[in-house]
Amino acid sequence: MNRRCFLRSLAAAPAAGLVHVPFLYPSEAMAQQPRGMAPADPFKPAEEANSPIGAGQGIHPGRVVWVRDANATTWDGVTGRWWDDANTNQKAVHGMASRLVQDLTGKKNDKQAWDALFRSFNQSRKLGSSGYRPGERIAIKINCNQDRSAEWGTLAPSSRNAPPGGPQGRPPRPPQNGLPSPHAIVALVAELIESAGVRGEDIMIYDATGIRNVGPPIYTRIRANSNPQFQAVKFLVGADYDLGGRVSPTPDLANPIRFAKGELPIGYFPQQVTEAKYMINMALLRPHGLAGVTLAAKNHFGSIHFPKDGGWSPRVLHNSVSRSLPMGSYNPLVELMGHRQLGGKTMLYVLDGLYTAEHNEGSAFKWASFDDHWAASMLMSQDPVAIDSVALDLLASEPRATQVRGHADNYLHEAAQAAKPPSGTVYNPDNSGGLASLGVHEHWNNRTARKYSRNLGRREGIELIARV
């Protein structure tokens, strides 16, 4: 049976209720590990605490805001699915989004906060001092890595997945549910339309990887809103099965990305993305079996096309982001973060951590750090290095996030020092003459106090505003 027929057969399958099963299948999490490399050791920061490197970005340089609200995530782990309205409090998630933008900008209301974000972006790019103007498009990149079937809750097809019955003697493996929160996406779209005044037709939500979709739980919630602006929001997907209402990516051959590692091919982005003026990178707060973590930087593995090496697939980049590579190694995430068509047009970084998954192929898990409750968290920043640094510290401090291993922070050192990285690589992905520092990196003082350099009164480094 070919892939298209298989996906059609899944579309006809009934949705299955998802139950959290604490048993982990290490072989799945490690399946992407490059051959010849030993399993990575537990993560240990490469430098001392509160030793910032790089230059902070944003209105308040290096600021990261973290909001946690246990009332937002009420799933009992058994009844229905975590993304059901009965299990996630949309009002609470809206409140989290509002608190995030206000704390990030220091403004008193959401309208002022969004205007400040747009103006900050334009001023920092020498595009004038105006805010958003109708007709300026905004691309929202979400991580739909596990959105691989026509209906959430059915088994996702993947060449890396074990058979659904599980190994002999082990419990049956549940359908994957490491998916983006529909409620978090709805909250972001509502902020843009209702607070920032953005037209729905100027908003596009996307993941361009070939087998991925933006599934019904996200699509129908936005389309169901009575405000016609919500119904005008666009969806771009790479999936080769049609759920209706989505468009397919067209590679923009005029805007290539060139990787410094010679054997990597030239890649391209969706033309629908390069035509946007602004981008919001809405990634997941999640460990990863190959890279250690998959946060804002790696989210753009779903933005790239290789004409002769897999099409809309990032697999040719996998070995170059392995957590088993030594510190000071080349990493293509830096080029994705710095390319003018991706990181160069990103006005905001958001991490969805309402129901965090065990790893990139895993199910939602409750955090020991939060008294055996869901992560129930969202993070926001204008600094891509700072937000991933804070997220790495959060994940590394959680005993159940077992896949945060090896040199998961190598790419953060490279990105913070992109002009003169430890690897000696010349990062010049868009042939513009090379990259400057892409943001500031450091690790907090400890997992209890969670203080970064600016929290300790210093003039450099990360500032974490935590409402937890």
Please characterize this protein's 3D structure.
The chain is of the alpha/beta class. The chain has one domain. Helices cover 21% and strands 14% of the residues. Strand 3, helix 5 and strand 4 (203-207) form a beta-alpha-beta unit.
Write the layout of secondary structure elements.
Blueprint: H1 3-11, H2 26-29, E1 53-54, E2 63-68, H3 90-105, H4 110-124, E3 138-142, H5 182-195, E4 203-207, H6 216-223, H7 228-231, E5 234-237, E6 251-257, E7 267-270, H8 271-274, E8 278-284, E9 286-288, E10 292-294, H9 333-338, E11 346-353, E12 377-381, H10 384-396, H11 410-416, E13 440-441, E14 463-467
Parallel strand pairs: 2-14, 3-4, 3-8, 4-5, 8-11
Antiparallel strand pairs: 1-13, 2-12, 6-7, 9-10, 11-12
Q: How is the main sheet built?
A: 8 strands, mixed
Q: What is the chains' assembly state?
A: single chain
| Domain module tally | 1
Beta strands, count: 14
In which range does the helix fraction lie? 10-25%
Q: What structural class do the secondary elements suggest?
A: alpha/beta
Helical element count? 11
Helix/strand order: HHEEHHEHEHHEEEHEEEHEEHHEE
Distance between the termini: 49 Å
Strand content: 5-15%
